What does this fold into?
Amino acid sequence: MTETYPVDTSVKPDVTMFFDPQSNTFSYVVKDPNSNACAIVDSVMDIDYAAGRISYEHADEIIKYVQDNDLNVEWLIETHVHADHLSAAPYIQEKVGGKLGIGENIVVVQETFGKVFNEGTEFQRDGSQFDKLFKEGDTYQIGGMTAFAMHTPGHTPACMTHVIGDAGFVGDTLFMPDGGSARADFPGGDAGVLYDSIQKVLSLPDETRLFMCHDYGPNGRDIEHLTSVKEEKENNIHVGGGKTREEFVKFRTERDAQLDMPKLIIPSLQVNMRAGSLPPADDQGDVFFKVPVNKL
Ligand SMILES: [Fe+2]
It folds into this structure.
């Protein structure tokens, strides 16, 4: 399957990781080694949900890094509509530029959660909040590097894995080998489809570096964000060592039935379905999140 993708593992982007301990999320600055061009993957807005307070310490850290290193931000990539943290992409875009992109199935997610949150017709469900809606196999440039988007649904319908040279940004398609995989029980999720998407990622060259979106340090080990296709194929506890689709679906479905909703799912969805913007202010200029009762 790799021959349909422009994988060039001789291109090795410089990847700098930023960690948000509240949501265990990794954000990345992915830099072209031969120019100042970079992309920012999956940024995080800070929220104190109990207080209804948002801030931008983590985003400011990335902005400072970009400015200190004179980087030219060409892209802001969201691997998917996250349910466990809020994106800071528009905040970062305003300060340092770049085009904001997500998978084209964002429209499916917007339709679903537009209903859940009873958004009126003023909430556009056509993905127009983003600058670019990626389709399967789309390529784009970051300086001299060619990147491509691989549609990897299952966790959510809009999940994309972005491959930039020898580096794959898998979103929640895979976790570290000892973490397995992400849940597939959100609306539009599907364990079998997730298995197929994981196989697609594992069809990349063995030496491809895989950068995680999350890690929870299972069994008390330190937080880790980087593995490889080879390591995932051999050791992933949910799909490695030749586990079958049936085995995976059974395991994933049983496990998902026991999981609580992510703590930040309610504000996360309302922000992330809007490409990282807050819900529109009321006529007093005040902003509110909604809490739908018995809808999630
Ligand atoms: Fe996610």
